[in-house]
Write a structure and sequence with these properties.
CATH topology: Beta-galactosidase, Chain A, domain 5
Family: Belongs to the aldose epimerase family.
EC number: 5.1.3.3
Helix content: under 10%
Order of helices and strands: HEEEEHEEEEEEEEEEEEEEEEEEEEEEEE
Keywords: Carbohydrate metabolism, Isomerase, Signal
Distance between the termini: 70 Å
CATH class: Mainly Beta
CATH architecture: Distorted Sandwich
Structural class: mainly beta
GO molecular function: aldose 1-epimerase activity; carbohydrate binding
Strand content: 35-45%
Radius of gyration: 20 Å
Pfam families: Aldose_epim
């Protein structure tokens, strides 16, 4: 083995030890970014959004994401409220894949499958606060995490960051970046806010109006793993190409919606979805660079005590998680989620809030 290779291995080993020690000793905090009457709170535990406050059509400020009052509750959470997701968001069938001739067995955490990065995905680690500007014209926070080779079974060391920033007017920008340092690896970063733009404590979202800019979905088998097909939504309850109430046909789907949509646009920053709540007048418009979006109607949020003691129930929120396609590592016809050393992974999401009276 050459001295250069030996030195590189030693440096990576030291980096791994330092990163591990840093994470163990890292403090968990809550950080607010604020612009007028628009504010977002984030914790570096799981790079989690814990609140999004903005006015309704009457000027009343409300929190439009589900969540908890304490960090302890986030640590015990199994619904991924507001959390960052990775190294690979969504599911990997059989918790395994083959890449460049090597078979990788991952940590299964949903039966035999992997969900949202495994038992200790990015939602369950303490991120480093790298930059933080609370106020001013462009308040933002950047969180970083070093994911070691072999973590949850994934190959290679990866450096990850997420930046939450407030833009004019009433815009929340979320930018995920990642670099594979020494091995090709799947990377599919997303996050999991549970949106109820009527207010987190306003009841269910079934009367909210939704439009999704996607004419196809990726159908699932009985274990919620994509079959590999890409099927049209026309003449199915999954068709939200035209605005319709979330609950208009939800009774035709067991439990509720939980499926990936293949977005139609080929533009870099794609229209994803628009949500409208008539009572509050709030509108949320989502654009992203990802090829897909997971639409989930909080089907398994049952008797969950949340902020202020409010108890969340099924369909009390909706999730629109922009992402690469689920289980893409096992479906060559899906857009690739493989990132090779020297290439930077980038996933940008823009939420624009407005009022419709």
């Amino acid at each position: 083995m050459s001295s250069k290779i030996s030195l590189l291995l030693i440096c990576l080993f030291i980096l791994h030890l330092c990163a591990a020690a840093s994470v163990r000793g890292r403090k968990i905090g809550i950080y607010e970014i604020k612009k007028g009457d628009f504010s977002v709170k984030i914790t570096n535990y799981g790079a989690t959004i814990i609140s999004v406050l903005l006015p309704d059509k009457h000027g009343k400020i409300g929190d439009v994401v589900l969540g908890y009052d304490t960090i302890k509750e986030y640590k015990n959470d199994t619904s991924y409220f507001g959390a960052a997701l990775g190294r690979v968001a969504n599911r990997i069938g059989g918790a395994q894949f083959t890449l460049n001739g090597t078979h990788y067995k991952l940590v299964a955490n949903e039966g035999v499958n992997m969900l949202h990065g495994g038992l200790k995905g990015f939602s369950k680690v303490v991120w480093k606060v790298s930059k933080y500007v609370r106020h001013g014209p462009s308040p933002y926070i950047t969180l970083t995490y070093y994911s070691a080779d072999g973590e949850e079974g994934f190959p290679g060391d990866v450096l990850v960051s997420v930046t939450y920033a407030l833009k004019d007017p009433y815009k929340l920008s979320v930018v995920f970046k990642a670099r594979a340092l020494n091995k090709a690896t799947p990377i599919n970063l997303s996050h999991h806010p549970y949106w109820n733009i009527g207010g987190h404590n306003s009841g269910d979202v079934l009367s909210q109006v939704l439009q999704i800019y996607a004419s196809h979905i990726t159908p699932l088998d009985k274990q919620h793993i994509p079959t590999g097909e890409i099927s049209p939504v026309k003449n199915t309850p999954y068709d939200f190409l035209k605005p319709r109430k979330v609950g208009s046909r939800i009774d035709k789907i067991q439990n509720g919606y939980d499926i990936n949509y293949a977005l139609d646009s080929s533009r870099k920053m794609k229209p994803v979805a628009i949500v409208f709540d008539k009572k509050s007048g709030r509108v949320m418009d989502i654009k992203a660079t990802a090829p897909g979006v997971q639409f989930y109607t909080a089907n398994f949020v049952i008797n969950t005590k949340g902020k202020g003691g409010y108890v969340y129930q099924p369909h009390s929120a909706l999730c629109l998680e922009t992402q690469g396609f689920p289980d893409a590592v096992n479906h060559p016809n899906f857009p690739s989620t493989i990132v090779i050393p020297g290439k930077t992974y980038l996933h940008s999401v823009l939420y624009t809030f407005s009022i419709k009276k």
